[in-house]
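Hey team,

Filing this mostly as a record. A colleague (T.K.) asked me to run one chain through the structure pipeline before their review meeting, and I want the input and output archived in the tracker in case anyone asks later how it was produced. No errors, nothing strange. Just documentation.

Input sequence:
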Amino acid sequence: MVIALIVTTDGLPLAYEVFPGNTLDKTTLKPFLDKIEKLYGKARRVWVMDRGLPTEATLEAMRNEGVAYLVGTPRSLLGKLEKDLVDRPWEEVHDGVQVKLLPRENEFYVLARSVDRRKKETAMRRRKLKQLIHGLNRLKRRTISRDTLLKKVAVLQRDAGRVAGLVKVREPKADEPVDRRTFVCTFDRSAWKKALDRDGCYILRAYLPPGQMPEALVWEKQAPVLWSWYTQLVHVEEAFKTLKSDLGLRPIHHQIERRVEAHIFVAFLAYCLTVTLRMKLNVAAPGLTPRAVLKSLAAIQLVDVHVPITDGRELVMPRYTEPEAQQEMILEKLNLQLPKQPPPRIRSGEIIMPPDPST
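Output structure:
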């Protein structure tokens, strides 16, 4: 299935629609856009999409009809735009994230650079490169046939992915023996440095019709605003993917349509609460995320203390654990108060009679 979520520019959810799983492919995107317009009318709507969803023809048709869009772009385009982007100034979105804007013809290109994302991508690249080089070195020390060597090299390159392009392999020809002279591996340092420089970077592509551009979107602030709009797509995808884990639900495989719709409705309500919590945290404690808050407050538990009474009954005292300093700070920032401790209750039980000495 496909879920279309309608949100404000601040990320507050307004409504959603559920469509069959094959609705949003490259051939049926246009009917999908028309259906949303019929359901909710014309508006200054911006379509935020993954890079693999629209085709170039679809984007051109959207521009011709004055439909605004914001879509991710393959990083390979960075090489074509690199010269034009070099002289553009960086704008600080927040700590560790910078963006720069490149107007080009009827579109905007936004280059984003994240410190955390760069560290993650560099670590993954180093790990794959290490595995590839160690695997090739092991093959050099073995005595194997040429066919076996080619198969194992192909497996190593497949596992390495794009990192395999950083190591040039000279394979032995059909009439050559397999040794260190015919099987040579060369590390491309210039390509490695270029790849490291691009780690943590990604490009966004946007079209905003002049008559539909929001008044708040002034020229100096276009890049940060466009970046913030695109991050909403990431938040929505992450929320719907992780709701089951955050709520402690196991994967549920529905077979009836109304149960599917009910499940999505519950997920949508949970997402609304998550966004509301995030908005409150942005004002009171910007450094906290909804997930971190829920994880911290989950440590406050309600327990029942059972105290046996001499007449066979039990005194049950419900008590929640006292919040720690961090939890008290979160409750204070969110203007929340824990209720009073529940009153104790007495539960009747079977009276145990002492044994008769005569028996």
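Quick notes for T.K.: The CA atoms of residues 108 and 206 lie 5 Å apart. The radius of gyration is 30 Å.
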